[in-house]
Amino acid sequence: MESLDSYLPIHAYQVWIAAAIVLGVAETLTGGFFVIIFGLGCLVGALAAYLGAGLNVQLGSAILSSLAIFALSRTLFRDYLVKKGSPVRTNAAAIVGQEGEVIESIGIGAARGLVRIGGEVWTALSPTPIDAGERVQVDSIDGLKLHVSRISNHRARRDEAGGMR
Known about the structure:
The protein has three helices and five strands, in the order H-H-H-E-E-E-E-E. It is of the alpha+beta class. A five-stranded mixed beta barrel has the order 1-2-3-5-4. Strand 1 and strand 2 form a beta hairpin. The longest helix has 27 residues.
């Protein structure tokens, strides 16, 4: 098989390097760390062309090296860049465990009351009655209802500015 150099006015490795540069620029525009993998594969194809390999070898080395780099980079990202540990709780799930103030008494069973947590007012249920002004802790959440329990027998005190202490 003839070399690619016989068809081009420039050397084949220069075409591969130009393709790698174009793909590198494209990566800066996309930012997904995907296009650059093929740019690195083009550099391997350029090396094969520089060493005198035929077009099939150049293409094969570019494709295989791109696949290998993709597999290695996925492993590196998964093992080293992904944070391990407990996921961050967000939205309603983040309320579980927080403390709040009862602003409308909670009765026994299905008698609902109101609890203020972080400036938001929630409907709350408790297995025991809890008077307005008492501090509670959120045990669980069911839809838009909080299941709470008393954390102390003292009433919440207000400071001079009207906020919780």
